[in-house]
Amino acid sequence: MFFKRKNINPEFEQKAEQISHESEGANTVERLQSVEISNNTQKVDVNEEKEKTVNEARKVLEHELSIKHFFHKQLLETLDLGLLSSLEKERA
Which top-level group of life is the source organism from (predicted)? Predict the structure, then answer.
């Protein structure tokens, strides 16, 4: 009742096996590429975070520096006025 399958076209089976092996190889290449892409996006995200922290730190330092310059300027003006007033007292 059951018939044994004859190997009618062995070339077709060989081609089918080659194609399946090539597709598996292509899948591994695609997987590697997707892993590389995900690694690159992670690196970009890490670099963007570092850049943001550097920019925030730079803004804080610039703000502190502007405050220091303001108070230094105020101090110099005060010292100049103090020096002028002491000179006027000596002249009088």
Answer: Bacteria
Indicate if the pLDDT at residue 92 is higher than 60: no
pLDDT tier for residue 16 given thresholds of 50, 70 and 90: confident
* CA 32 to the chain's CA centroid: 22
Report the pLDDT value the prediction gives residue 43, as an integer from 0 to 100. 85
Spacing of C-alpha 66 from chain mean position: 29
CA distance 19 to 16: 5
Q: Is the C-alpha dihedral spanning 46, 49, 50, 51 positive or negative? A: positive
The closest of 49, 71, 70, 51 to 59, measured between CA atoms, is 51
Structure tokens at 46: 């890490």
Query: Distance (Å, rounded) from C-alpha 53 to C-alpha 55?
Result: 5
